[in-house]
Amino acid sequence: MADVSAARTKAVFEFKSATLPLIAVILKTSDLDVLAEALDAQLADSPDFFEQEPVVIDLSLLQEAQGEGGEAVGDIDFAALRSLLARHQTQPIAVRGGNAGQNAAARAAGLSVAAMPAAPAPRAPAPPAEAPASEAPQIVREVPVPANGTLLIDKPLRSGQQVYARGGDVVVTAVVSFGAEVIADGNVHVYAPLRGKAIAGARGNTEARIFSTCMEAQLVAIAGIYRTNEVPLPDTVLGKSAQVRLDGKKIAIDAIP
Questions:
Q1: Are 49 and 89 in contact (CB under 8 A)?
Q2: Distance CA 179, CA 159 (A)
Q3: What is the rounded CA–CA span in Å between residue 12 and residue 49?
Q4: How far does Cα 214 stand from its chain's mean position?
Q5: What are the tens digits of pLDDT across the range 211-225?
Q6: Other C-beta atoms lying within 10 Å of the C-beta of residue 110
Q7: Per-residue pLDDT tens digits for 118-172
Q8: Contacts of 101 (CB under 8 A, 6+ apart)
Q9: Spatial separation of the C-alpha atoms in residues 22 and 3, rounded to whole Å
Q10: CA dist 82 to 32, 41, 59, 77, 105, Å?
Q11: What's the pTM?
């Protein structure tokens, strides 16, 4: 009888590992009133951007700020935080980067606790900030891409939003606004105005390239070598179709006829 039951159970279901695209909301404040105001302002123009996608709440920056002598992180009402994020068409499912007390509170609110990524993508050095860091959350869409695969983004990327195509190329068919970031381990294609940051070859691929039909980038980078808009783009490529590549250890930007 036991053998029959085991065979029947095995036929009914099976467990398999799954790699899913997730959005990480990286909190920079534990004050939910401040957070609500920032989310409302940032997502006002695209209320349905997320379409009920799963979300991981990242608390790591709160811990870093406290460790560097910042203000102590207060208790977080995770039930209220879940409701706040759900109001913007997301489905919070887990937290990461929190301390033991935060993890316990998150579990009590029905959230799972996820591990931090083992190897975050290398980032190009950023130019010096001209203003104090905002308390607005950073919204990061981390999408594992199959080997030699391509991630397609067909919605505008607003300031503060980041897309990272881990392991492949990314194609964006809508505007990348100033303050938004598109990152790929392979090539970056933007078939629209590129006004934010584009980072190709994030894990050191020096052959990666960046393409845009309207080059107005705030920053472009390939394999850690970058160029910002502090050096104005020449008229031959500004606002026109162009590609970015590495020429030795320098960024080269060429017009596409």
A1: yes
A2: 4
A3: 36
A4: 22
A5: 999 999 999 999 989
A6: 11
A7: 444 444 444 444 444 456 666 666 555 555 578 889 889 988 788 888 888 999 9
A8: 75
A9: 39
A10: 11, 18, 14, 9, 12
A11: 0.54
Long-range contact pairs involving 44-47 (C-beta distance under 8 Å, separation at least 24): 45/156, 45/158, 46/155, 46/156, 46/158, 47/88, 47/89
Burial 235-255 (b: 16+ CB within 10 A, else e): eebbebebbbbbeeeebebee
Whose tokens are 């899913």? That residue is: 20
Q: For residues 208 and 223, is the Cβ–Cβ distance under 8 A?
A: yes
Question: How many degrees, rounded to 5, is the angle at CA 195 between CA 194 and CA 201?
Answer: 60
* Residues 155/135, Cβ–Cβ less than 8 Å: no
CB 170, CB 184: distance < 8 Å: yes
CA distances from 250 to 150, 169, 199, 204, 227 (A): 26, 22, 14, 14, 9
Asked whether the CA dihedral 140, 144, 148, 154 is positive or negative, the reply is: negative
R_g of the chain computed on alpha carbons? 21
Cα–Cα dist 231/112, whole Å:
45
